[in-house]
Protein backbone atom coordinates (compact mmCIF):
# COMPACT_ATOMS: atom_id res chain seq x y z
CA UNK A 1 0.00 0.00 0.00
CA UNK A 2 1.17 3.50 -0.77
CA UNK A 3 1.12 5.86 2.20
CA UNK A 4 -0.04 9.46 2.40
CA UNK A 5 0.75 11.68 5.38
CA UNK A 6 -0.89 14.91 6.60
CA UNK A 7 1.19 18.09 6.89
CA UNK A 8 1.47 17.85 10.70
CA UNK A 9 2.99 14.40 10.40
CA UNK A 10 5.34 15.48 7.59
CA UNK A 11 6.51 18.47 9.62
CA UNK A 12 7.17 16.30 12.67
CA UNK A 13 9.18 13.86 10.54
CA UNK A 14 11.08 16.71 8.86
CA UNK A 15 12.03 18.18 12.22
CA UNK A 16 13.61 14.90 13.30
CA UNK A 17 15.48 14.61 10.02
CA UNK A 18 16.59 18.28 10.03
CA UNK A 19 18.14 17.77 13.46
CA UNK A 20 20.59 15.21 12.04
CA UNK A 21 21.17 16.73 8.60
CA UNK A 22 23.61 19.49 7.63
CA UNK A 23 22.01 22.93 7.20
CA UNK A 24 20.30 23.30 3.84
CA UNK A 25 20.89 19.72 2.70
CA UNK A 26 17.19 18.77 2.53
CA UNK A 27 16.27 21.87 0.60
CA UNK A 28 19.13 21.25 -1.85
CA UNK A 29 17.87 17.73 -2.51
CA UNK A 30 14.30 18.97 -2.93
CA UNK A 31 15.33 21.84 -5.20
CA UNK A 32 17.61 19.65 -7.30
CA UNK A 33 14.63 17.34 -7.89
CA UNK A 34 12.55 20.34 -8.97
CA UNK A 35 15.30 21.45 -11.39
CA UNK A 36 15.56 17.96 -12.94
CA UNK A 37 11.81 17.86 -13.52
CA UNK A 38 11.78 21.43 -14.84
CA UNK A 39 14.46 20.50 -17.38
CA UNK A 40 12.42 17.43 -18.41
CA UNK A 41 9.34 19.62 -18.89
CA UNK A 42 11.29 22.15 -20.95
CA UNK A 43 12.70 19.39 -23.14
CA UNK A 44 9.19 18.04 -23.61
CA UNK A 45 7.31 21.29 -24.19
CA UNK A 46 9.98 23.44 -25.89
CA UNK A 47 12.31 20.79 -27.30
CA UNK A 48 15.42 22.11 -25.51
CA UNK A 49 16.63 23.31 -22.11
CA UNK A 50 19.39 25.83 -22.77
CA UNK A 51 18.15 29.26 -23.80
CA UNK A 52 14.60 28.71 -22.55
CA UNK A 53 12.90 31.07 -20.08
CA UNK A 54 11.72 29.97 -16.65
CA UNK A 55 9.88 32.24 -14.22
CA UNK A 56 9.78 31.44 -10.51
CA UNK A 57 6.84 32.62 -8.41
CA UNK A 58 8.44 32.98 -4.98
CA UNK A 59 6.47 33.24 -1.72
CA UNK A 60 7.65 34.03 1.78
CA UNK A 61 8.73 30.61 2.99
CA UNK A 62 10.79 27.53 2.27
CA UNK A 63 8.58 26.62 -0.69
CA UNK A 64 9.91 29.79 -2.31
CA UNK A 65 13.39 28.74 -1.16
CA UNK A 66 13.05 25.50 -3.10
CA UNK A 67 12.06 27.47 -6.20
CA UNK A 68 15.01 29.88 -5.85
CA UNK A 69 17.52 27.06 -5.45
CA UNK A 70 15.94 25.20 -8.39
CA UNK A 71 16.38 28.41 -10.40
CA UNK A 72 20.06 28.52 -9.47
CA UNK A 73 20.48 24.90 -10.65
CA UNK A 74 18.65 25.67 -13.91
CA UNK A 75 20.99 28.59 -14.59
CA UNK A 76 23.79 25.99 -14.83
CA UNK A 77 21.86 24.41 -17.73
CA UNK A 78 21.76 27.75 -19.57
CA UNK A 79 18.17 28.57 -18.65
CA UNK A 80 17.20 32.28 -18.42
CA UNK A 81 15.65 32.44 -14.96
CA UNK A 82 13.57 35.28 -13.50
CA UNK A 83 12.38 35.17 -9.88
CA UNK A 84 9.25 37.14 -9.04
CA UNK A 85 9.30 37.86 -5.30
CA UNK A 86 5.90 38.22 -3.64
CA UNK A 87 7.45 39.29 -0.33
CA UNK A 88 10.96 40.58 -1.15
CA UNK A 89 11.77 41.27 2.51
CA UNK A 90 10.93 37.68 3.50
CA UNK A 91 12.26 35.73 0.51
CA UNK A 92 14.47 32.75 1.46
CA UNK A 93 17.87 34.32 2.04
CA UNK A 94 20.22 31.55 1.00
CA UNK A 95 18.09 30.64 -2.02
CA UNK A 96 17.97 34.25 -3.19
CA UNK A 97 21.73 34.62 -2.75
CA UNK A 98 22.30 31.40 -4.74
CA UNK A 99 20.13 32.62 -7.61
CA UNK A 100 21.88 36.00 -7.63
CA UNK A 101 25.29 34.29 -7.65
CA UNK A 102 24.12 32.26 -10.64
CA UNK A 103 23.12 35.55 -12.33
CA UNK A 104 19.39 34.98 -12.29
CA UNK A 105 17.09 38.02 -12.61
CA UNK A 106 15.08 39.10 -9.58
CA UNK A 107 11.99 41.34 -9.79
CA UNK A 108 9.17 42.33 -7.49
CA UNK A 109 5.53 41.31 -7.97
CA UNK A 110 4.64 44.67 -9.58
CA UNK A 111 7.19 44.09 -12.34
CA UNK A 112 6.58 40.35 -12.61
CA UNK A 113 3.90 39.96 -15.25
CA UNK A 114 5.96 40.40 -18.47
CA UNK A 115 8.34 37.61 -17.48
CA UNK A 116 5.38 35.38 -16.53
CA UNK A 117 3.74 35.96 -19.91
CA UNK A 118 6.99 35.25 -21.79
CA UNK A 119 7.97 32.18 -19.77
CA UNK A 120 8.32 28.71 -21.31
CA UNK A 121 7.74 27.25 -17.85
CA UNK A 122 6.51 28.71 -14.57
CA UNK A 123 7.64 27.26 -11.25
CA UNK A 124 5.12 27.74 -8.46
CA UNK A 125 6.96 28.31 -5.18
CA UNK A 126 4.29 30.58 -3.71
CA UNK A 127 3.35 28.39 -0.77
CA UNK A 128 3.72 24.75 0.25
CA UNK A 129 3.10 22.90 3.50
CA UNK A 130 2.14 26.09 5.35
CA UNK A 131 -0.65 27.01 2.91
CA UNK A 132 -3.86 28.31 4.40
CA UNK A 133 -6.86 29.07 2.20
CA UNK A 134 -6.88 30.16 -1.44
CA UNK A 135 -4.18 32.30 -3.07
CA UNK A 136 -3.96 35.79 -1.65
CA UNK A 137 -4.85 38.59 -4.05
CA UNK A 138 -1.25 39.57 -4.95
CA UNK A 139 -0.37 35.98 -5.80
CA UNK A 140 -3.68 35.40 -7.59
CA UNK A 141 -3.09 38.49 -9.77
CA UNK A 142 0.27 37.11 -10.90
CA UNK A 143 -1.08 33.62 -11.57
CA UNK A 144 -3.66 35.13 -13.95
CA UNK A 145 -0.82 35.98 -16.34
CA UNK A 146 0.34 32.35 -16.60
CA UNK A 147 -0.24 30.50 -19.85
CA UNK A 148 2.90 28.30 -19.87
CA UNK A 149 3.00 24.84 -18.25
CA UNK A 150 3.36 25.04 -14.49
CA UNK A 151 5.57 22.97 -12.23
CA UNK A 152 4.23 23.17 -8.65
CA UNK A 153 6.80 22.88 -5.89
CA UNK A 154 5.46 20.37 -3.32
CA UNK A 155 1.81 21.20 -4.11
CA UNK A 156 -0.19 23.64 -6.23
CA UNK A 157 -0.51 26.88 -4.26
CA UNK A 158 -4.01 27.81 -3.18
CA UNK A 159 -5.11 24.17 -2.80
CA UNK A 160 -5.46 22.97 0.78
CA UNK A 161 -2.58 20.54 1.49
CA UNK A 162 -4.59 18.32 3.85
CA UNK A 163 -7.96 18.17 2.11
CA UNK A 164 -7.32 19.15 -1.50
CA UNK A 165 -10.12 21.71 -1.21
CA UNK A 166 -10.11 24.72 -3.53
CA UNK A 167 -12.00 27.68 -2.19
CA UNK A 168 -10.91 30.49 -4.51
CA UNK A 169 -7.97 31.23 -6.81
CA UNK A 170 -5.44 28.41 -7.01
CA UNK A 171 -2.62 27.22 -9.24
CA UNK A 172 -3.47 24.45 -11.69
CA UNK A 173 -0.22 22.58 -12.25
CA UNK A 174 0.94 20.48 -15.17
CA UNK A 175 3.29 18.60 -12.86
CA UNK A 176 3.83 18.59 -9.11
CA UNK A 177 7.14 17.63 -7.59
CA UNK A 178 6.78 16.72 -3.92
CA UNK A 179 9.33 15.68 -1.32
CA UNK A 180 9.70 12.92 1.23
CA UNK A 181 6.11 11.71 1.16
CA UNK A 182 2.85 12.35 -0.63
CA UNK A 183 0.36 14.62 1.10
CA UNK A 184 -3.48 14.29 1.00
CA UNK A 185 -3.81 16.99 -1.69
CA UNK A 186 -2.03 14.69 -4.13
CA UNK A 187 -4.69 12.00 -3.94
CA UNK A 188 -7.73 14.10 -3.00
CA UNK A 189 -7.25 16.71 -5.74
CA UNK A 190 -5.05 15.16 -8.43
CA UNK A 191 -6.73 17.35 -11.06
CA UNK A 192 -4.96 20.47 -9.75
CA UNK A 193 -1.63 18.63 -9.24
CA UNK A 194 -1.20 17.22 -12.75
CA UNK A 195 1.43 14.48 -12.92
CA UNK A 196 2.83 13.86 -9.44
CA UNK A 197 6.46 12.96 -8.79
CA UNK A 198 7.97 12.13 -5.44
CA UNK A 199 11.58 13.11 -4.70
CA UNK A 200 13.21 11.08 -1.94
CA UNK A 201 14.77 13.28 0.74
CA UNK A 202 15.27 10.47 3.25
CA UNK A 203 12.08 11.00 5.27
CA UNK A 204 10.70 7.46 5.10
CA UNK A 205 12.20 6.23 8.39
CA UNK A 206 10.72 9.11 10.37
CA UNK A 207 7.17 8.95 9.04
CA UNK A 208 5.43 6.15 10.95
CA UNK A 209 1.96 4.87 10.01
CA UNK A 210 0.32 6.77 7.16
CA UNK A 211 -2.91 8.76 7.59
CA UNK A 212 -4.35 7.60 4.26
CA UNK A 213 -3.39 4.81 1.89
CA UNK A 214 -3.81 4.05 -1.76
CA UNK A 215 -4.04 0.42 -2.82
CA UNK A 216 -1.27 -0.49 -5.22
CA UNK A 217 -2.10 -2.85 -8.04
CA UNK A 218 -0.17 -5.59 -6.21
CA UNK A 219 -2.44 -5.13 -3.16
CA UNK A 220 -5.52 -5.55 -5.32
CA UNK A 221 -3.98 -8.58 -7.04
CA UNK A 222 -3.16 -10.19 -3.69
CA UNK A 223 -6.69 -9.57 -2.40
CA UNK A 224 -8.66 -10.65 -5.48
CA UNK A 225 -10.14 -14.14 -5.01
CA UNK A 226 -8.64 -16.65 -7.42
CA UNK A 227 -9.93 -20.23 -7.18
CA UNK A 228 -7.53 -23.08 -6.47
CA UNK A 229 -7.90 -26.74 -7.39
CA UNK A 230 -9.88 -27.44 -4.20
CA UNK A 231 -12.48 -24.76 -4.89
CA UNK A 232 -16.02 -25.24 -6.18
CA UNK A 233 -18.85 -22.86 -7.03
CA UNK A 234 -19.67 -22.34 -3.36
CA UNK A 235 -16.21 -21.77 -1.90
CA UNK A 236 -15.91 -18.25 -3.32
CA UNK A 237 -19.25 -17.43 -1.83
CA UNK A 238 -22.70 -16.83 -3.18
CA UNK A 239 -23.63 -13.20 -3.83
CA UNK A 240 -27.25 -12.17 -3.50
CA UNK A 241 -28.46 -9.15 -5.47
CA UNK A 242 -31.65 -7.30 -4.48
CA UNK A 243 -31.92 -4.63 -7.13
CA UNK A 244 -33.93 -3.28 -10.04
CA UNK A 245 -37.62 -3.59 -10.72
CA UNK A 246 -39.88 -4.75 -13.54
CA UNK A 247 -40.02 -1.14 -14.81
CA UNK A 248 -36.31 -0.47 -14.25
CA UNK A 249 -34.49 -3.75 -14.79
CA UNK A 250 -31.23 -2.09 -15.93
CA UNK A 251 -29.77 -1.65 -12.47
CA UNK A 252 -30.45 -5.32 -11.71
CA UNK A 253 -28.70 -6.45 -14.91
CA UNK A 254 -25.68 -4.22 -14.24
CA UNK A 255 -25.22 -5.13 -10.57
CA UNK A 256 -25.85 -8.86 -11.08
CA UNK A 257 -23.68 -9.20 -14.18
CA UNK A 258 -20.82 -7.40 -12.46
CA UNK A 259 -20.98 -9.83 -9.55
CA UNK A 260 -20.94 -12.72 -12.04
CA UNK A 261 -17.81 -11.33 -13.71
CA UNK A 262 -15.97 -10.45 -10.48
CA UNK A 263 -15.31 -13.91 -9.06
CA UNK A 264 -16.09 -17.50 -9.88
CA UNK A 265 -18.61 -17.66 -7.01
CA UNK A 266 -22.31 -18.09 -7.63
CA UNK A 267 -24.81 -15.24 -7.95
CA UNK A 268 -28.47 -15.21 -6.95
CA UNK A 269 -30.84 -12.47 -8.01
CA UNK A 270 -33.99 -11.68 -6.04
CA UNK A 271 -36.58 -9.23 -7.37
CA UNK A 272 -39.09 -8.45 -10.04
CA UNK A 273 -36.52 -8.16 -12.84
CA UNK A 274 -35.56 -11.84 -12.61
CA UNK A 275 -36.60 -12.69 -16.18
CA UNK A 276 -34.59 -9.86 -17.71
CA UNK A 277 -31.56 -10.68 -15.56
CA UNK A 278 -31.69 -14.39 -16.51
CA UNK A 279 -31.97 -13.48 -20.21
CA UNK A 280 -28.65 -11.61 -20.00
CA UNK A 281 -26.96 -13.82 -17.40
CA UNK A 282 -28.21 -17.43 -17.70
CA UNK A 283 -25.81 -18.57 -14.95
CA UNK A 284 -27.74 -16.53 -12.36
CA UNK A 285 -30.36 -18.18 -10.16
CA UNK A 286 -33.28 -15.79 -10.06
CA UNK A 287 -36.23 -15.61 -7.68
CA UNK A 288 -39.02 -13.08 -7.26
CA UNK A 289 -38.21 -12.06 -3.70
CA UNK A 290 -35.42 -12.06 -1.14
CA UNK A 291 -37.52 -14.24 1.15
CA UNK A 292 -37.22 -17.25 -1.19
CA UNK A 293 -33.71 -16.53 -2.48
CA UNK A 294 -31.87 -19.29 -0.61
CA UNK A 295 -28.57 -18.94 1.23
CA UNK A 296 -26.00 -16.34 0.23
CA UNK A 297 -22.74 -15.13 1.77
CA UNK A 298 -23.39 -11.48 1.01
CA UNK A 299 -26.18 -9.19 -0.17
CA UNK A 300 -26.10 -6.19 -2.44
CA UNK A 301 -29.23 -4.14 -1.92
CA UNK A 302 -30.43 -0.94 -3.44
CA UNK A 303 -29.68 -0.19 -7.10
CA UNK A 304 -33.01 0.63 -8.77
CA UNK A 305 -34.86 -1.08 -5.92
CA UNK A 306 -37.22 1.79 -5.14
CA UNK A 307 -37.73 3.57 -1.84
CA UNK A 308 -41.30 2.44 -1.15
CA UNK A 309 -42.64 -0.15 1.28
CA UNK A 310 -41.47 -3.08 -0.79
CA UNK A 311 -37.91 -1.78 -0.95
CA UNK A 312 -38.00 -1.11 2.78
CA UNK A 313 -39.15 -4.67 3.57
CA UNK A 314 -36.49 -6.09 1.24
CA UNK A 315 -33.72 -4.09 2.87
CA UNK A 316 -34.87 -5.08 6.35
CA UNK A 317 -34.89 -8.76 5.39
CA UNK A 318 -31.43 -8.53 3.86
CA UNK A 319 -30.00 -6.78 6.92
CA UNK A 320 -31.44 -9.51 9.18
CA UNK A 321 -29.61 -12.35 7.47
CA UNK A 322 -26.34 -12.05 9.38
CA UNK A 323 -24.23 -11.82 6.21
CA UNK A 324 -22.24 -8.82 4.88
CA UNK A 325 -24.38 -6.26 3.05
CA UNK A 326 -23.45 -3.63 0.49
CA UNK A 327 -26.18 -0.97 0.70
CA UNK A 328 -26.18 1.27 -2.35
CA UNK A 329 -28.40 3.90 -3.99
CA UNK A 330 -32.06 3.43 -2.90
CA UNK A 331 -30.93 1.41 0.11
CA UNK A 332 -28.98 4.45 1.33
CA UNK A 333 -32.01 6.69 0.84
CA UNK A 334 -34.11 4.18 2.78
CA UNK A 335 -31.62 4.09 5.66
CA UNK A 336 -31.61 7.91 5.67
CA UNK A 337 -35.42 7.97 5.82
CA UNK A 338 -35.83 5.09 8.27
CA UNK A 339 -32.67 4.89 10.40
CA UNK A 340 -34.30 2.17 12.54
CA UNK A 341 -33.78 -0.18 9.58
CA UNK A 342 -30.23 -0.59 10.82
CA UNK A 343 -31.56 -2.14 14.06
CA UNK A 344 -32.26 -5.24 11.95
CA UNK A 345 -28.55 -5.69 11.43
CA UNK A 346 -26.39 -7.97 13.54
CA UNK A 347 -23.71 -5.46 14.63
CA UNK A 348 -20.99 -8.03 13.98
CA UNK A 349 -21.78 -8.39 10.29
CA UNK A 350 -20.08 -5.98 7.91
CA UNK A 351 -22.04 -3.25 6.20
CA UNK A 352 -20.68 -1.24 3.26
CA UNK A 353 -22.44 2.02 2.39
CA UNK A 354 -21.61 3.55 -1.00
CA UNK A 355 -22.99 7.12 -1.11
CA UNK A 356 -22.22 9.84 -3.63
CA UNK A 357 -22.12 13.35 -2.16
CA UNK A 358 -25.92 13.86 -2.33
CA UNK A 359 -26.66 10.49 -0.72
CA UNK A 360 -24.01 11.21 1.90
CA UNK A 361 -25.84 14.41 2.83
CA UNK A 362 -29.15 12.55 3.01
CA UNK A 363 -27.58 9.88 5.19
CA UNK A 364 -25.68 12.06 7.63
CA UNK A 365 -27.56 15.37 7.45
CA UNK A 366 -24.52 17.26 6.15
CA UNK A 367 -22.64 17.42 2.84
CA UNK A 368 -19.15 15.89 2.94
CA UNK A 369 -17.64 19.41 2.89
CA UNK A 370 -14.02 20.28 2.21
CA UNK A 371 -12.47 17.45 4.24
CA UNK A 372 -13.92 14.40 2.51
CA UNK A 373 -11.63 11.93 4.25
CA UNK A 374 -12.66 13.22 7.69
CA UNK A 375 -16.33 13.19 6.65
CA UNK A 376 -16.15 9.58 5.45
CA UNK A 377 -14.31 8.55 8.63
CA UNK A 378 -16.90 10.18 10.89
CA UNK A 379 -19.75 8.51 8.99
CA UNK A 380 -17.97 5.14 9.17
CA UNK A 381 -17.73 5.48 12.94
CA UNK A 382 -21.30 6.67 13.30
CA UNK A 383 -22.84 3.84 11.25
CA UNK A 384 -20.24 1.28 12.28
CA UNK A 385 -19.90 0.58 8.57
CA UNK A 386 -17.39 0.90 5.77
CA UNK A 387 -18.28 4.13 3.97
CA UNK A 388 -17.25 4.47 0.33
CA UNK A 389 -17.73 8.13 -0.59
CA UNK A 390 -17.83 8.39 -4.36
CA UNK A 391 -16.07 11.14 -6.28
CA UNK A 392 -13.18 11.70 -8.68
CA UNK A 393 -11.15 10.56 -5.70
CA UNK A 394 -13.21 7.91 -3.95
CA UNK A 395 -12.60 7.73 -0.20
CA UNK A 396 -13.17 4.45 1.65
CA UNK A 397 -13.21 4.66 5.46
CA UNK A 398 -13.60 1.83 7.96
CA UNK A 399 -15.10 2.23 11.44
CA UNK A 400 -11.63 1.65 12.92
CA UNK A 401 -10.30 4.71 11.05
CA UNK A 402 -8.46 2.98 8.20
CA UNK A 403 -8.93 5.20 5.15
CA UNK A 404 -7.97 4.63 1.56
CA UNK A 405 -8.34 6.78 -1.53
CA UNK A 406 -8.92 5.47 -5.02
CA UNK A 407 -8.05 7.97 -7.73
CA UNK A 408 -9.98 7.61 -10.98
CA UNK A 409 -8.10 7.45 -14.28
CA UNK A 410 -10.13 10.19 -15.97
CA UNK A 411 -13.79 11.04 -15.45
CA UNK A 412 -15.43 8.33 -17.55
CA UNK A 413 -16.80 6.57 -14.47
CA UNK A 414 -19.30 9.37 -13.87
CA UNK A 415 -22.06 7.86 -15.99
CA UNK A 416 -25.52 6.43 -15.33
CA UNK A 417 -25.42 2.86 -14.02
CA UNK A 418 -21.73 3.00 -13.13
CA UNK A 419 -22.56 2.74 -9.41
CA UNK A 420 -24.60 -0.43 -10.04
CA UNK A 421 -21.50 -2.04 -11.55
CA UNK A 422 -19.45 -1.07 -8.49
CA UNK A 423 -21.99 -2.48 -6.05
CA UNK A 424 -21.96 -5.85 -7.83
CA UNK A 425 -18.17 -5.99 -7.59
CA UNK A 426 -18.23 -5.14 -3.88
CA UNK A 427 -20.91 -7.75 -3.21
CA UNK A 428 -18.90 -10.50 -4.91
CA UNK A 429 -15.78 -9.65 -2.89
CA UNK A 430 -17.80 -9.58 0.36
CA UNK A 431 -19.22 -13.02 -0.48
CA UNK A 432 -15.67 -14.28 -0.99
CA UNK A 433 -14.91 -13.24 2.59
CA UNK A 434 -12.67 -10.22 2.02
CA UNK A 435 -12.32 -7.65 4.75
CA UNK A 436 -15.10 -5.16 3.84
CA UNK A 437 -12.77 -2.14 3.68
CA UNK A 438 -10.41 -3.99 1.35
CA UNK A 439 -13.36 -5.34 -0.65
CA UNK A 440 -14.66 -1.82 -1.24
CA UNK A 441 -11.20 -0.50 -2.10
CA UNK A 442 -10.29 -3.37 -4.42
CA UNK A 443 -13.68 -3.13 -6.14
CA UNK A 444 -13.24 0.63 -6.64
CA UNK A 445 -9.80 0.00 -8.14
CA UNK A 446 -11.04 -2.58 -10.65
CA UNK A 447 -14.12 -0.48 -11.41
CA UNK A 448 -11.93 2.53 -12.24
CA UNK A 449 -9.61 0.42 -14.35
CA UNK A 450 -12.53 -1.15 -16.24
CA UNK A 451 -13.88 2.33 -17.01
CA UNK A 452 -10.46 3.47 -18.20
CA UNK A 453 -10.00 0.42 -20.44
CA UNK A 454 -13.54 0.59 -21.81
CA UNK A 455 -13.49 4.35 -22.40
CA UNK A 456 -10.13 4.47 -24.18
CA UNK A 457 -10.45 8.25 -24.32
CA UNK A 458 -14.13 8.59 -25.22
CA UNK A 459 -17.37 8.48 -23.17
CA UNK A 460 -18.48 4.99 -22.20
CA UNK A 461 -21.83 3.57 -21.03
CA UNK A 462 -21.99 1.50 -17.82
CA UNK A 463 -22.71 -1.71 -19.74
CA UNK A 464 -19.34 -1.34 -21.50
CA UNK A 465 -17.64 -0.68 -18.14
CA UNK A 466 -19.17 -3.94 -16.97
CA UNK A 467 -17.97 -5.71 -20.12
CA UNK A 468 -14.41 -4.54 -19.38
CA UNK A 469 -14.33 -6.09 -15.89
CA UNK A 470 -12.56 -9.29 -17.10
CA UNK A 471 -9.89 -7.20 -18.87
CA UNK A 472 -9.41 -5.08 -15.74
CA UNK A 473 -9.09 -8.15 -13.48
CA UNK A 474 -6.70 -9.73 -15.99
CA UNK A 475 -4.56 -6.59 -15.97
CA UNK A 476 -4.49 -6.55 -12.17
CA UNK A 477 -3.71 -10.26 -11.78
CA UNK A 478 -0.95 -10.03 -14.38
CA UNK A 479 0.98 -7.99 -11.82
CA UNK A 480 1.71 -10.78 -9.38
CA UNK A 481 2.86 -14.25 -10.34
CA UNK A 482 0.71 -16.87 -8.63
N1 LIG B 1 11.13 21.78 6.31
C1 LIG B 1 11.97 21.14 5.49
O1 LIG B 1 12.87 20.50 5.90
C2 LIG B 1 11.80 21.18 4.05
C3 LIG B 1 10.81 22.00 3.48
N2 LIG B 1 10.69 22.10 2.18
C4 LIG B 1 9.82 23.08 1.57
O2 LIG B 1 9.31 23.97 2.54
C5 LIG B 1 7.92 24.14 2.35
C6 LIG B 1 7.25 24.59 3.61
O3 LIG B 1 7.81 25.83 3.89
P1 LIG B 1 7.32 26.81 5.05
O4 LIG B 1 6.83 26.00 6.18
O5 LIG B 1 8.42 27.74 5.27
O6 LIG B 1 6.11 27.59 4.45
P2 LIG B 1 5.52 27.78 2.98
O7 LIG B 1 4.61 26.66 2.64
O8 LIG B 1 6.61 28.09 2.04
O9 LIG B 1 4.61 29.08 3.16
C7 LIG B 1 5.22 30.32 3.22
C8 LIG B 1 4.28 31.39 3.64
O10 LIG B 1 3.25 31.59 2.70
C9 LIG B 1 2.20 32.34 3.30
N3 LIG B 1 0.90 31.78 2.88
C10 LIG B 1 0.09 30.92 3.53
N4 LIG B 1 -1.00 30.64 2.84
C11 LIG B 1 -0.91 31.36 1.69
C12 LIG B 1 -1.75 31.48 0.56
N5 LIG B 1 -2.91 30.80 0.50
N6 LIG B 1 -1.39 32.28 -0.45
C13 LIG B 1 -0.20 32.96 -0.38
N7 LIG B 1 0.65 32.87 0.67
C14 LIG B 1 0.29 32.09 1.69
C15 LIG B 1 2.43 32.27 4.77
O11 LIG B 1 2.97 33.48 5.19
P3 LIG B 1 2.27 34.50 6.20
O12 LIG B 1 0.91 33.96 6.57
O13 LIG B 1 3.19 34.59 7.35
O14 LIG B 1 2.21 35.75 5.41
C16 LIG B 1 3.48 31.16 4.89
O15 LIG B 1 4.31 31.27 6.02
C17 LIG B 1 7.48 22.80 1.85
O16 LIG B 1 6.23 22.85 1.19
C18 LIG B 1 8.62 22.47 0.91
O17 LIG B 1 8.42 23.10 -0.35
C19 LIG B 1 11.59 21.36 1.31
O18 LIG B 1 12.66 22.24 1.01
C20 LIG B 1 12.11 20.08 1.92
C21 LIG B 1 12.71 20.34 3.23
K1 LIG C 1 3.71 25.52 -4.40
From TrEMBL:
K(+) binds at residues 63, 124, 157. The lineage of its organism: Bacteria, Bacillati, Actinomycetota, Actinomycetes, Pseudonocardiales. Homotetramer. Keywords: ATP-binding, Isomerase, Lyase, Metal-binding, Multifunctional enzyme, NAD, NADP, Nucleotide-binding, Potassium. InterPro entries: Carbohydrate_kinase_pred_CS (IPR017953), CARKD (IPR000631), Nnr (IPR030677), Ribokinase-like (IPR029056), YjeF_N_dom (IPR004443), YjeF_N_dom_sf (IPR036652). AMP binds at residues 390-394, 419. Binds 1 potassium ion per subunit. The gene is nnrE. Catalyzes the epimerization of the S- and R-forms of NAD(P)HX, a damaged form of NAD(P)H that is a result of enzymatic or heat-dependent hydration. This is a prerequisite for the S-specific NAD(P)H-hydrate dehydratase to allow the repair of both epimers of NAD(P)HX. Catalyzes the dehydration of the S-form of NAD(P)HX at the expense of ADP, which is converted to AMP. Together with NAD(P)HX epimerase, which catalyzes the epimerization of the S- and R-forms, the enzyme allows the repair of both epimers of NAD(P)HX, a damaged form of NAD(P)H that is a result of enzymatic or heat-dependent hydration. It catalyses: (6R)-NADPHX = (6S)-NADPHX; (6S)-NADPHX + ADP = AMP + phosphate + NADPH + H(+); (6S)-NADHX + ADP = AMP + phosphate + NADH + H(+); (6R)-NADHX = (6S)-NADHX. This is Bifunctional NAD(P)H-hydrate repair enzyme. The keyword NADP applies. Its cofactor is K(+); Mg(2+). Residues 10-209 form the YjeF N-terminal domain. In the C-terminal section; belongs to the NnrD/CARKD family. Belongs to the NnrE/AIBP family. It holds the Pfam family YjeF_N. Residues 216-476 form the YjeF C-terminal domain.
